[in-house]
Amino acid sequence: MPGLRLTEAQVERLCTADTLTSVSALRALVSAGFLRPMADGTYGRTDVLTGRQDTPRVRPSTGMTLSPWHRILCLVELENEGRGPLKAPAYSALRYATTLAVTHRARVTALQVVTSPSLRASLRAAAEMLRKTVFGEAFRGLIDVHVAAGSVNEELVRVATEVGADLIVLGRTGNAGSASWSGLSQILRQAPCPVLIVHPSGRAAVA
């Protein structure tokens, strides 16, 4: 509508669409020149905004739309003590993370935290296994792999800080009363950036 300006969250509510669909649609309309992103985080029709004093949200040197994310850290876990394919929650999280990376011109670090004593002795072998697993994923060219040993919570926070992550993506496991969600509370308190939790259905929420 002429003169209407909405944020991504408002578009999501107005169109009753999930976050990924709303963001992808907005990016496509910006690329097509129909919408224009503004400094306050809203989007409006380019033909209506032309000539107004609003400041477009672009990089002065490149003319490219600013992205909130440049490095996305995704926690992954493999079946069979790190020797099999990605577990279902990790698969959903990695697919969501790579889709965001494509949309925002970012890179993904797929982090596997090894806790099994049998695998700790050979982190290089674990990294190679993870690399082979990720190689079969879509947009694999955007994914870097990282394997660490220790506590999942501690390593996730440490690696997020080390790689300069702007966003952490986790796959949801268990229910609100499970041990995994108890650990999640600690991650949310210590994380150096926003945490996005992906449900197996593909929907996500930022905490």
Kindly describe this structure:
There is one protein chain. The protein starts with 5 loop residues before the first strand and ends with a strand. The protein contains 9 helices and 9 strands. The strands form 2 sheets. It has a 6-stranded mixed beta sheet, sandwiched between helices. A 3-stranded antiparallel beta sheet has the order 1-3-2. The chain is of the alpha/beta class. Strand 2 and strand 3 (42-45) form a beta hairpin. It is 42% helix and 20% strand. The protein has 2 domains: 6-49, no CATH class; 71-206, 3-Layer(aba) Sandwich (Rossmann fold). Helix 1 packs across helix 2 (19-31), helix 2 packs parallel to helix 5 (88-104) and helix 8 packs parallel to helix 9. Residues 52-56, 58-65 and 176-181 have low confidence and may be disordered.
Write the layout of secondary structure elements.
Layout: E1 6-7, H1 8-14, H2 19-31, E2 35-37, E3 42-45, H3 46-49, E4 71-76, H4 79-82, H5 88-104, E5 107-114, H6 117-120, H7 123-135, E6 143-149, H8 152-163, E7 167-171, H9 179-190, E8 195-198, E9 204-206
Parallel strand pairs: 4-5, 4-7, 5-6, 7-8
Antiparallel strand pairs: 1-3, 2-3, 8-9
Helix pairs in contact: 1-2, 2-5, 8-9
